[in-house]
Amino acid sequence: MAERPTTNWRRGVAEEAAELAAGTLETECAYMAELFPEGLLLTTDAVLRAFEAELTTLAEGDDARVLAAVERVVLALNAVHEEHDQCAFETDEREQLCAYIDASITERGIDVTALTARHGLGRHELTDRWRDW
Question: Which domain holds residue 94?
C-alpha cells in the first residue's frame, strides 16, 4: 500500500524533536510539531484508513464507485482542513495527499489516466472538483 503522508509527517516531527533534544536545532527554527499536531495526524490517518478499506472493494471499470470513493476521501479531508482553521494542508501536504490517493488507486489496479480521461479530466485533476484544501 502507498505510504500515507502522515507517516512522512510523523517522521519529520520525530526527527525535529531529536534535533532539538540533541541541541543541533534551535527552538525558534522548529516548526514540525506546530504544523503537524497529533490531533491532525490522528484524524487524517482515520480518513485515509477508511479510504484504504473502501479501496479493497473497487475494481477497474467501476468508475462511479471509484469516483465516489475519491469524493468521500476528499470531502473528509476538507473537513479535517476546516477543523484546523484551513491551515491543515499547505502546498506540499496537498501534493502528498493527491499523490497518495492516485498511488493507492493505481495499486488497486485501476488505470487513473484512463479513468480521468473517460470523465474529461487530466490525470492530476482527479480530486479537483471536490477539494478545498
Answer: 37-125
What is the CB neighbour count within 10 angstroms for residue 35? Answer: 17
Task: Compute the distance between CA of residue 10 and CA of residue 32 in angstroms, rounded to an integer.
Answer: 9
What would the pLDDT profile of 54-97 be if each residue is shown by its tens digit?
999 998 889 999 999 999 999 999 999 999 999 999 999 999 99
Contact 30, 20 (CB under 8 A): yes
Q: What is the pLDDT of residues 25-63, one digit of tens each?
A: 999 999 999 999 999 999 999 999 999 999 999 988 899
Q: Three cell numbers at 56?
A: 479493497
pTM of the model as a whole = 0.94
* DSSP label at residue 127: T
Residue at 15 is within a domain? no
Would you give the end-to-end CA distance of the chain in angstroms?
23
Instruction: Give the chain's domain count.
Output: 1
